[in-house]
User: Fold this.
Amino acid sequence: MKLLDKTLVIICITLVGMVLLMYVASQVILMGSYSSMENADVAGKMDSALRAISYDLSMLDTITVDYAYWDDTYEFIAEPYITEDTPYVLSNLVDTTFEMQRLNIVVFLDSTDNIVYARAYDLDNERFVDMPDGFIEVLKQGSPLLRSGSDESTHGVAMLQDKPMLVSAYPIKNSDGNSPTGGTLIMGRFLDEKGIQTLGDITGLSMEVMPYSGTALPEDYRNALPRLEEHGSVVAEPINDTTVAGYTIIDDIFGNPALVLRVDEPRSMYIQGQNSVIYYILSLIFAGIVFITVTVFLLEKTVISRIAQLSNTVHLIGAKDDPSTRVHVSGNDEVSLLAETINTTLASLQSSREKLFASEQKFRSLVENIGDIVLEANDRYELTYISPNVKKVLGYDPEEVIGKLIYDFIGIEDAARLKYMNIQLFATNVPIVLIDIEFVDKEGRLIDIELSGTKTIDPQGRIIGFHGVARDVRERKRIERTMRKWADIFQMARIPITISDPGNVMLDMVNPAFSQMYGYDAEDLYNIRFEDIFDVSCRNDLGKHINRADIEGHHVFGSRHVRKDGSVFPVSIDISVVKDPQGNVLYRIINVQDITERKEAEEVLQAANDELAKVVHALQDEVAERKRVEEQIAGSLKEKEVLLKEIHHRVKNNLQIISSLLNLQSGNMNKESAAAFRESQNRIKSMALIHEKLYQSRDLSHIDFAEYVSNLTSYLARSYTNNPRVNISTDIREISLGIDMAIPCGLIINELVSNSLKYAFGDGRTGEIRINMVMDGGKYILIVSDDGVGLPQEFDFHNSPSLGLQLVNTLVDQLEGTIELEKAAGTTFTIKFGEDGLREKC
Assistant:
């Protein structure tokens, strides 16, 4: 890359970095300020929305106080009997009153907080309706709406089953306000979507409210709630690039969170801030482009052109390879100083070249007259020089070798070794490498070469190649290989071998097999006469065998030898004689073999081979049979598993059909009969749930009882109670039951929890139902308890007419367990049974 291009790249990178830095800074500083302003604006809009709701509530207060401080109302509340035909009702509590005042409920309480008269009106359908569900719950003991004995009023938001209502309560007095409180007047209007829309139209805001405890809160409400609960007040959350939403919590008359109010606001400030940042960055980029253009122009005129001239001159000198030429650049700056430095370098180079030429001539004369091959290679292992002796050793002319890889003239295995040695040479401080390898001469023959070399380093310390000497070591290698071969053969021979002199004295040439066979150490056999290891009865024949070997040069015969421990064994002796050119015996090579051991070994080996073949055949048959049986078992298990899952699935479906039929039939019955059918549905549901868990489980014989109980109690809670303040908790850890035990346990829990939900928490009573199950000493302990109203002390659950408790006693008996009832602080049933306690029941 040219210097001008590099300069341009550096300036561009600097400009881009500066633009990015300024963009990040503007995002952090400017957009942070705009975000703060946006949050403040959202808080202001939220304050306006809250004031609108407060204003609507104050208007309701005005209506309520007008009716509460009125003589007609005071007289109305004092009447002993109030009916729909009461004049006050006919003249004041009519549909026009509700429509004009936008009222949904009007309730009159006497001085003891009992409801004297109540009326509800549907503004959408313009008709009177029943009192809204949940209103009576708002009037429970301790409600702020109960004003008996108080001269103060109250107002706020009341939640009627997740439906918000603005309510206002005032004590009822005469028009002067100096009479005793005759009761309480409560008026309310729903804060529904239509009402919120009306307030939004008045304030010009986009408003929306959602119940705080609603089960289907939108995702943005759920994301804002944790911050609202942590920080309170108002939380602003961007919805998208054009809209921001503010959230706040509105408490009900009990001081509990009731509603989440959301106000949407356009992000005009944020968009304005984004536009400002874009205009700022574009201005910065334009200024940078102008700066780059001016800078490059000045650099080209003052620096780059002179450096280019200097570069061209140096390039011409290099092309001519003439260091005597000099460069010329005018001026008195760094460029002219560089020109002077180049001239000085050229002068030094010219002097060095002359000295190098003289040294090279001397080196060539020395190298070309030695018997070894001198070579040089670069760092890519390409030969750059080789001495003329390569012709004598390998048959190549030097010109045929120069420029080729040194590995081209080496065998594949030796090439790999040489590469590894070169890597070691270049990677370490090893000064020289010495390796014996085989070169391939021009005719394809392998030549033994001893190669020594060292790495070549330039003045800067960089490795630029290596140089070395290759020596022809064919003759030396041949001798070494011959000697090593015979030595290896002698030492590694499995046949005992020794060498004796002409007088039959064993020399220090005894191989390990020989000394091991006789039980001697090798040193013990040195200088011992060969006949000393023969059995006495065989020594007389040794002389004639040796004479025959000396004549024939080779002779084999049998005999008996004696080991160090005195044992005698048969041997086969093979004697080979080595003579000098005149025919004199130099030494004898004696091979000895224990024939008996070999024969015994052959017999044992044959017997072992026959036995091994039988064992292998039997094992193969056994493995094949085992594999076949395992495949049959695996297939059978798979079929049974699929069939068992199908059975559980169909049983669950059939039970579900029965439950549905009971549900359809209960729709045509009276309340008591329908309740009995529902109890039967729950029992069927508890059994169906077990089969559902089994066919969904990997283990078809057991179910996770904790998960089953959790699902069963959730179903019962939805089926029986309208009181959300009754909590059902379970504590069942690592218990797995089979179907025979799970169904009775499930039915027991179904009956006991159903009884608690039906009878223990009447009149909106709060409380908890607890289900615990543990394994203790081989016994299961199941505890079902509640903190409800409890059972009478004289109640005998063993003889109860209740079908549910009769079923519980029967199921406990079926499990061969025990059941105990504790009536203190609610009701607690404790059932104990063992793992093997199940028995069949008719």
In short: The chain has a mean pLDDT of 80.
